[in-house]
Amino acid sequence: MPLRRRDSDSRSNHQAPHKSSSFSQPSARDDKPRDAIDRNLSLGAAAARQADHHDGRRDLHHPSPAGDAIKEEREEDERDDARAGDGGAPCGGDGGDGEVGGDGGGDSGVPDLAALSVEIDAFIAAGQDGGETLSDATLERFATAVEMEIAQSETAVDKWATGANGEPRALLSAISRIAALASALAKTPEGSGGKHATAGAHRVTAVLHRAMAFLEDEFLALLDDPRVPKATTFDQVQHEVDRCVLPSAVDAGAGVGESAPPYPPETVDRLRSMADAMVTAGYVTECTQMFLVARRNASDASLRALGYEKACIDDVVKMTREALEAEIATWTKAFRHTINVGLSTEHDLCTRVFAGRHAAVGRGIFADLARCVMLHMLNFTEAVTMTKREAEKLFKVLDMYEATRDASPVIDAFLTADDGNNSTALTDLKHELNSVRSRLGEFAAAIFRELESSIRADAGKQPVPGGAVHPLTRYVMNYLKYACEYNSTLEQVFREHGAHGGGDGDNPFAAQLMEVMELLHGNLEGKSRLYKDPSLSNIFLMNNGRYMLQKIRGSPETNAMLGEAWARKQSTNLRQYHKNYQRETWSRVLGLLRDDGVLTVKGSVQKPVLKERFKQFNAAMDEIQRTQGTWVVSDEQLQSELRVSIAAVVVPAYRSFLGRFAQSFSAGRQSEKYVKLSADDVEAIIDELFDGNATSMTRRRT
Asked: Positions of the region Disordered (predicted)?
């Protein structure tokens, strides 16, 4: 009956937790060493020994019935050898069959592993064409020596402790040697060693299976050692900050530090020795799957330590905007740390554990691990792009866009280091990153266009009291200020997904920005017509125009995007609003202070007309103070400019008017009745305008 690979049932006690569809299976070439053994060796006692082992570690002093049968056959063969060799040593020694080596055990009955190892190494080194052979007895004693080493290790408190002389335990060397021996025997032509060599090979294979089962358990235990702090792979960054809309925007990647290795050097050395033995013996599938699952679990735990928990699409879609933004901030921090620190750490670990002739296995493991971990996180981006397009989400989505964009060079670097070997998973990951970035870019462009839609839709019919800055103006300008901090990213987004096809010298985001400003300006022009008083309409346009200009000049990014030409145009508009206001409010007042040929006729003052002029002037000033005192100019500089410009025209004109005509009234009650304000009173009234506090005119000439 031919020797079979251990199926899922025989591995159930050791491998069940390690099987995962998340990882690609090694190719058929990975199993060649064990397949070769299986093709060249018959089951014999191996299956029985393996079954005994998986039912509970087989007692060396109580062999199975199948083992008894082989033992009897072996003892009979040894007696035949002894008779043929003049009663020589029963263990083969330098017997008549011409085989190399002896039992290496002297007369003690305990196999000498060190002495036997010398013979085994010589046989392995000689290779298939070296002419070296090993007796059945030598193979038996070496297999027994290895089995005893395993049994001693199974009961040891510290399986990897050094011996009394400081030498490391020979267990791993013995397992590696028996794996190499089984491979060498599998390459030996059938029949060259006779029935002895074939029976000995069965024994070697059976012990190899037991050794591999033991090694699998130890490999997994070492990977999952609770004494090793696994979260160090993606170590949480204590002071890492993320980009946010308000009050400030900073680099989401700031504060990323170096991560400590996930295992101490001595643990890595043991893992490497175990992996070498398992891969050499053809157990590459079991080895890689255990390693993958252990490291994937470690990365999941580390992501949780960073605050990131995987959420299903339905949960993400149902989140409030505030909750989603918080989740995106956590995801961005975890994703950047994974890219900048975690993958490098895992790549280094794979390189160290699977070194030398097994480097290709390590590259394949890392590629699968990177793809699995990254896809686990990239699924979140798909859910985000399915949520409602809201303008406030733009900045968090741009953080995600930048994170996925910046990940591509990292994956490219791993692909370059891979030299094109086992890079299918990494290539697939790179394509997925590009696809995710594209979807996020489309989503970001659509969100920005929602801002334009919201401006067009804002057609409120209720004017802002006092002509103050409209909430829409504040919202849009603050929004654009933060958007311009992402100017290079938004330029890339709109170049790829925008409606404006920017050429080589054009910035499509700048064109988009200009369109938003024009929309806002048009919206404000419409809102200014809601005021019945033309003067207040101009105050409203002045307030909003000045706010827009100050916001742009206060943001180097926005100023650079819109350009100086836009700022000059806005300043021109402001001067025009100012002139319009003064004409609407103060031209009529100044007209009352002119001698237009009605106040004096042939050098004589027309007192009735003069009295009416003073009455009209006093009423106009009272009305201006009463109404425009409630108007608001929140920008102190603009408020001061308005007051100064008004006073510079009105106060001198009134002072001159008083100088010419105040004496026309007799002192006393007549003068107080018509000349109610002094020039200083008029200046004081002007200085109280635009502060939002209405007062009645109580000042009188003194």
From this structure: 1-112
- Which domain covers residue 81, as residue numbers? 12-223
- Alpha-helical regions (H) of 629-664: 636-661
Q: Tell me how many helices (H) and strands (E) the chain has.
A: 25, 2
- Output DSSP code: residue 632: B
Q: Which amino acid is at 598?
A: V
Report residue 84's pLDDT band, with 50, 70 and 90 as the boundaries: very low
Residues 434 and 480 in one domain: no
Are residue 448 and residue 466 in the same domain, yes or no? no
Domain identity same for 73 and 175: yes
Contacts of 426 (CB under 8 A, 6+ apart): 367, 370, 371, 411, 414, 415, 418
> Domain containing 369 — which CATH number?
1.10.357
Choose the final residue of a domain: 396, 423, 452: 452
* Contact in structure between 173 and 270 (CB atoms under 8 Å): no
Please tell me whether residues 629 and 570 are part of one structural domain. no
- What's the number of domains the chain is made of? 4
What size, in residues, is the chain? 702
- At 86 the three-state DSSP class reads coil
Q: How far apart are CA 296 and CA 273, in angstroms?
A: 21
Q: Which residues 6+ apart lie within 8 Å of 313 measured at CB?
A: 382, 383, 386
Burial of 55 (0-12, 13-18, 19+ CB in 10 A): exposed
Contact call for residues 401 and 332 (beta carbons, < 8 A): no
**Is 386 domain-assigned?**
yes
Rounded CA gap, 128 and 123, in Å? 9
Average pLDDT in the 53-58 region?
A: 36
Q: Hey, what amino acid is at 134?
A: L
Q: How many CB atoms lie under 10 A from the CB of residue 529?
A: 11
Mark whether 611 and 677 lie in a shared domain. Answer: yes
CATH number at residue 655: 1.20.1280.170
Same domain, 127 and 212: yes
CA distances, 591 to each of 59, 179, 201, 657 (Å): 121, 112, 122, 11
HEC states along 174-242? HHHHHHHHHHHHHCCCCCCCHHHHHHHHHHHHHHHHHHHHHHHHHHHHHHCCCCCCHHHCCCCCCCCCC
Tokens found for residue 613: 């002029």
Which candidate, 31, 46, 113, places its Cα nearest to that of 278?
Answer: 31
- Residue 456 makes CB contacts below 8 A (sequence gap 6+) with 519, 523
d(CA 464, CA 541): 11
In a domain, 619, yes or no: yes
Among the ranges given (16-25, 213-222, 423-432, 595-604), the one the predictor scored with the smallest mean pLDDT: 16-25
pLDDT beyond 70 at 698: no
Tokens for 182? Answer: 């089984």
In a shared domain, residues 505 and 628: no
Last residue of a domain, one of 452, 486, 506: 452
* The pLDDT value given to residue 405: 95
- Which of 40-49, 444-453, 572-581, 618-627 has the lowest average pLDDT? 40-49
Place of tokens 């010298």: 505
Residue 664: its pLDDT value, please?
A: 83
Same domain, 283 and 426: yes
